Amino acid sequence: MSESSAVVQVRDLVKEHGHGESRVRAVDEVDLVVPEGQTLAVMGPSGCGKSTLLHLMGGLERPSRGEVWLAGQRIDGLSERALARMRRRSVGFVFQAFHLVEELSAVENVELPALLAGRSPRQARRRAGALLERVGLTARARHLPSQLSGGQRQRVAIARALANEPLVVLADEPTGNLDSAATLDVLRIFEELRSAGQTLVIVTHDERVAATADRLVSMRDGMFVDDTRLAGFHPRGLGGLIGLEG
Amino acid sequence: MQDAVLAMLAKEPSHGYGLRARLRQSLGPLGESMNPGQIYVTLSRLEKAGLVVCERADGLPERPDRKVYALTPAGQQRVATWLAEVGWPKPDMAEFHLKLVAAAAAWLADPVELIAAQRRELLRRLREAQQAILAEPAGSKATLLLEGVVLRLQADLRWLEVCERAWSRGGASRADDRVEGV
Q1: Is B30 helix (H, G, I), strand (E, B) or coil?
Q2: Is A244 at the interface with chain B, CB within 8 A?
Q3: Which residues from chain B sit within 8 angstroms of residue A240, using beta carbons?
Q4: Which of residues 29-48 of A touch B (CB under 8 A)?
Q5: Which alpha helices (H) appear in chain A, and where do they start and end?
């Protein structure tokens, strides 16, 4: 039952780097269930294993031990080829450094995953156009990444992550390279995805980004040290935030 | 509050409801939780203190006369002083700090647990403020206040991180003693 309602599930997950004496556990026996439609933030200091966890969840790395399930399918034992197909179809990635193809325009970057997944060029272009509109970049569709600001590039990357209507969007420090205005733009888009029911996992060290999530887990030394539900609390009145009442 | 109300009267004499509307607009989403009667309470205190005078304006025939408030010279002086004043709103950190110290000393509670609970509370408030900002149209001046709340909460959360590291070291003397930039 948990597998069917969970988009992502990991069990007893371990990832070790290095060998012998220098071996370190980046992820240390982690269990996690991300239900459909949840926005989950993973926070922790650099080196706590949060990015590794994200990579394991998206099939970018393989665990040393444990299980990774995506929409009821166990993926940690898949062949490279099957894993690549799964990533293309089911996972949207957003990275700190954007990772756009510099030679391609914004719209070409966004349509690329759809083309790779076998959609017709027309379908792919139509979808890319709609996604760029969603992130407010219709006017920049023909621009190369080098002609865009950091914030705009990240918005293109988010549109690209959505190209194949992924089961889950995995974002690794999505605002790490952005100023506060561009961060707000990205948070607005995440908020829109959240209300549209998109399952979203965001790894961040920025409390502000984490605070947009429904749920927050904190990591230290490869382990979860806290799991907090942020959403669904009765607002105590914004005035309480600045002592306006009374 | 008194100073802010006085300063808003510096532009021109105004009715209580006009002042209230201007205050609410300046405060944006935060203004919605303002008690409607607060402005009148404040104005009557200012009147008693001799900082504003209240005049009856000629009302429309069907309406009762409405009070118009204006600054007295003393009120103007106070506004000028207030504007020139440089202050720093004191964050209340001592109380929480002492709570941790007392809890640890008396073995009443685990400071790390207290920090975690405090952190959860601040994160929920941060979320509230953040949601309010995202709900406002981009570029609205009123969100500046919320932006201030967000930055303040972020600073508090970072302080809690420092506390957490120190108290978990002191408690269990963790092997992993690395230093993270804060």
Answers
A1: helix
A2: yes
A3: 33
A4: 45-47
A5: 2-5, 50-57, 80-90, 106-116, 121-134, 150-161, 180-195, 207-210
Chain B residues with CB inside 8 Å of A228's CB? 120, 123
Mean pLDDT of chain A: 91
Per the model's pLDDT, the better-predicted residue between B57 and A205 turns out to be A205
Say which DSSP state A18 is in.
S
Per-residue pLDDT at B31: 82
Cα A102 to Cα A92, A98, A223, B18, B176, distances in angstroms:
19, 10, 37, 55, 41
Rounded CA separation B147/A86 (Å): 40
Residue A168, strand partner residues: A91, A199
Q: Which helix (H) or strand (E) holds B165?
A: helix B143-172
Give chain A's end-to-end CA distance (angstroms, integer). Answer: 49
Which pLDDT score is estimated for B181? 43
Whether chain B has a CB inside 8 Å of the CB on A118: the answer is: no
Count the alpha carbons within 13 Å of B176 in the hemisphere toward its beta carbon. Answer: 9
Interface A-B, measured as beta-carbon pairs within 8 A, has a size of 77
**Residue of A47, A211, A246 lying closest to B126 (CB–CB):** A211
Q: Is this complex scored with an ipTM above 0.95? A: no
CB–CB of A212 and B130 under 8 A? yes
Tens-digit pLDDT profile for residues B86-136 = 988 777 889 999 999 999 999 889 999 999 999 999 999 999 998 888 888
Quote the Cα angle for B162-A173-A213, to 5°: 80
Distance from CA of B56 to the nearest CA of A (A): 28
Instruction: Write out chain B residues lying below 8 Å of A231, CB-based.
Output: 127
Domains of chain A in start order, with CATH, are 2-99+164-230 (3.40.50.300)
* pLDDT tens readout for residues B157-178: 999 999 998 998 765 443 344 4
Task: Test B130 with A208 for CB contact under 8 angstroms.
Answer: yes
